[in-house]
Amino acid sequence: MARRGALKANLLVAAQRAMAEHGTSVRLNQIASEAGVTAGAVLYHYPNMQELLFEANQSGMARFHDQRLEALAGISDPAARLIQTIRTGVPEGPEDPDVRLLCALGGEAARNNLYALLLTSLFDRQVSMYQGILEMGVASGAFVLRQDTITIARNLVALEDAYGYRMMAKHPTLGYDSAVELIVEYARLATGHPLPLEK
Amino acid sequence: MARRGALKANLLVAAQRAMAEHGTSVRLNQIASEAGVTAGAVLYHYPNMQELLFEANQSGMARFHDQRLEALAGISDPAARLIQTIRTGVPEGPEDPDVRLLCALGGEAARNNLYALLLTSLFDRQVSMYQGILEMGVASGAFVLRQDTITIARNLVALEDAYGYRMMAKHPTLGYDSAVELIVEYARLATGHPLPLEK
DNA sequence: AAATTTCCTGAATTGTGATTTAAGAACTCC
DNA sequence: GGAGTTCTTAAATCACAATTCAGGAAATTT
Q1: What's the CA gap between B7 and A151, in Å, rounded?
Q2: Going along B10-82, which residue ranges are E strands?
Q3: CATH topology (fold) of A1-47
Q4: Do A131 and A149 meet the contact criterion of CB atoms below 8 Å apart?
Q5: What's the DSSP call for residue B55?
Q6: pLDDT score of A199 more than 70
């Protein structure tokens, strides 16, 4: 046995992985197997599975958002920050586990108010993140906005989301680079900044 | 009993409704009850449920797309066509059955290639629809595009999709009107046309 | 290292849902 | 309106998954 309480922490990431693979109809046994234990062990820590799934999704979203914030850490130029944020908002490929999790939840939110709340809150936080970057760019004179920051920010997040879904569905001509380019093209129009992509 | 073969046709819409309500994990009994028959009757026409679900989704998407095309029937002005198309691309509310169906499928597409294909094909058809409108507007001189038609069209469809998900999740400040306005704002920027919304 | 607590397993239980089947009802055709 | 076909039901079957539980293993405490 590992240290006390070790499994309980692992269960969150195990549940995330299992749900990314099997969707919202993930089985208890699939989570258990992902964690390398039996179903009973899972139930010992989370007597009802719903709570585990909820916490797993909550923590998965928090990690997704935190990672995006971290990726901005060393960048001060507003244009570079904007590009970087767009880059981290698009899944790397159809297997990206974080986005898979989010997409799996999207449909569920229509009939589960808890998940709806989680997704809504994530959306709003991401909008705020973009708004901050846009305002910083305006203040520094780098951006000349053609629309409200709330409009631009919402549309940017919306584009990320939608292209995430397209990539999960393995669209043949919409890979990571095209999706980033499409979103950046909108950002260029809205900010009046050339936002160079060459990396 | 109704006319021969009547149930089989009804099953498609019954399955659509049941799936819009219960998601991809919809039960055979829920479909049967929606159709007003027992599970056995459903299985008589569709020996395996998967095929029924697939056909139901296929026909649901086709209807969604066809309805949008029909809504354009009497409109010849490119700007009016563009606005009208955006209007029919956003769900009327969180209960809109067509969009619920589409959203339910979104997460499933990550692990079901058939559904992935359906959604990809719908996306592409909608992109083509927008491209047609944009080109018409360019030809008539109404639009002065700031981006490729493919870029604008893809972003418009992406925005529709994403705001559809937000509305399904009952975002508190993103209703039908706001979503349309957000998308139209992008369209204005991209087409150089004021696209007046007052109706 | 013994005692205690925490943790985990494997089998049994219970519930749910898809699928099969036999029988009967409803429709069509003549 | 009767024969034959198509359709539908209700009960039985089968499979699977969540949950419970008694027993034992592993960590922690003393």
Answers
A1: 47
A2: none
A3: Arc Repressor Mutant, subunit A (1.10.10)
A4: yes
A5: H
A6: no
Which residues, other chains included, contact B139 with Cβ-Cβ below 8 Å and sequence gap of 6+?
none
**DSSP for B92-119?**
SSTT-HHHHHHHHHHHHTTT-HHHHHHH
Looking at the complex, report in whole angstroms how far the Cα of residue A9 sits from the nearest Cα belonging to chain B: 26
User: Would the CB atoms of A158 and B154 count as touching at under 8 Å?
Assistant: no
Start-to-end CA span in chain A (Å): 47
Q: What is the domain partition of chain A in residue ranges?
A: 1-47, 57-191
Of A residues 130-149, those with CB within 7 angstroms of nucleic strand C are none
Out of A103, A123, A163, the one facing B166 most closely (by C-beta) is A123
Q: Give yes or no for CB of A5 within 7 Å of strand C.
A: yes
Q: Which residues of chain B lie closer than 8 angstroms to A94, CB-CB?
A: 110
For residue B48, give every residue at least 6 positions away whose Cβ sits within 8 Å of its Cβ, in sequence order, or none: none
What is d(CA A54, CA A113) in angstroms, rounded to the nearest whole number? 11
Q: Integer distance in angstroms from the first to the last C-alpha of chain B?
A: 47
Query: Domain A57-191, what architecture?
Result: Orthogonal Bundle (1.10)
pLDDT of residue A7: 84
What token pair was written down for A176?
């990571």
Give the chain A residue nearest B93 (alpha carbons): A110
Chain A residue numbers touching B151 (CB-CB < 8 A):
182, 185
**Percentage of chain A exceeding pLDDT 90:** 94
- Cα separation, B111 vs B121, in Å, equals 16
Distance (Å, whole) CA B128 – CA A172: 16
The residues of the protein lying within 7 Å (CB) of strand D read A 1-4, 27-29, 39-40, 43, 47-49; B 1-2, 4-8, 32, 36-41, 44-45
CATH class of B56-191: mainly alpha
Residues A82 and A187: beta-carbon distance below 8 Å: yes
Q: What's the CA–C1' distance between A17 and C3, in Å?
A: 39
What averages of pLDDT result for each successive group of 10 residues across chain B (199 residues)? 74 96 96 96 95 96 97 96 98 95 96 96 98 98 98 98 98 98 98 91
Q: Is A91 helix (H, G, I), strand (E, B) or coil?
A: coil
pLDDT of the residue at B1: 46
